[in-house]
Amino acid sequence: MAVRTPRHVAFLRAINVGGRIVPMEALRAVFVKMRFAEVETFIASGNVIFAPDFADRAALERRIERALHASLGLDVPTFVRTSQEVRDLAKVAPFPPRLMREAGSVNVGFLAAPLDAKARAALASLATPIDVIETRGSEVFWLCRKTQSQSTLSNVVIERAIGVRTTFRGIKTVVRLAGKLA
User: Fold this and answer.
1) Which of 123, 99, 121 is nearest to 109 (CA)?
2) Among 174, 156, 173, which Cα is nearest to 77's?
3) Chain centre to alpha carbon of residue 104
4) Which of 13, 36, 157, 165 could pair with 50 as two cysteines, CB 3.0-4.6 Å apart?
5) Rounded to an integer, what distance in angstroms lies between the CA atom of residue 157 and that of residue 148?
């Protein structure tokens, strides 16, 4: 039996928003051109599964960002996680079960590194009666008790508060992605 190369997921920030559309095949082609193996996209929100040729996360993120800029002319902050990290995230219960069941949405924000104390305090200050926020390692968990359109929070508001880039995915997307990586 052949041993599979460990796969990773690149979570791309704002790849298909604001009227710009990058076809998933074009995105896949950028990763293939970088000579990554087993490249596939997962839904059209900027999730790329691939087998890298080395494992340094920060270097992979920079390499992907440079390639996306060179090939597509776009500045796309990139957050890489191993398939095991994605599977582990899918099992995390950052909020009490009842709150999770009743939530309008639960989102995971990917960061390049854990937040420092100042950024964690700034993030905590964003909590509202309908928005609950937690951090764990290099992820931010945002639960909205109602619909996100009723929230005063957004990716941009959170980024401004913490002073670093992030990209969010719905927990259901992370769970589906983890299933695909199982």
Assistant:
1) 123
2) 156
3) 19
4) 36
5) 13
Structure tokens at 59: 């270097």
Q: What is the pLDDT of residue 4?
A: 59
pTM exceeds 0.90:
yes
How confident is the model over 19-30, as pLDDT tens digits? 778 888 999 999
Label residue 173 left, alpha or beta by phi (over 0 means left) and psi (-120 to 50 means alpha): alpha
In the chain, which residues fall in CATH 3.30.70.1260?
A: 87-181
| CA angle 165–179–151, rounded 5-degree value | 40
Average model confidence (pLDDT) for the chain? 92
Residue 148: phi, psi to the nearest 5? -60, -30
- State the pLDDT at residue 1: 44
Cα–Cα distance measured from residue 69 to residue 176, given in angstroms and rounded to the nearest whole number? 28
Q: How do beta strands 78-82 and 8-12 pair?
A: antiparallel
CATH number of 87-181: 3.30.70.1260
* Residue 31 near residue 51 (C-beta atoms within 8 A): no
Q: Residue length, the chain?
A: 182
Instruction: Tell the CATH topology of 8-86.
Output: Alpha-Beta Plaits (3.30.70)
CATH 3.30.70.1280 domain span(s) along the chain: 8-86
Amino acid at 146: K
The residue whose two tokens read 């039996």 is 1
